[in-house]
Amino acid sequence: MKKKETKKAFVVQQDEVLFKMKKFCAYRDRCHSEVRTKLLEQKVYGDMLEEVISELIIEGYLSEDRFARSYARGKFRMNQWGKNKIIVGLKAKYIPANMIQTALTEIDEEDYLNTLQKLLEKKENTLSETNPALKNQKLIKYALGRGFEYELISRALNID
Question: Where are the domains of the chain?
Answer without folding.
Answer: 2-62, 65-104, 109-156
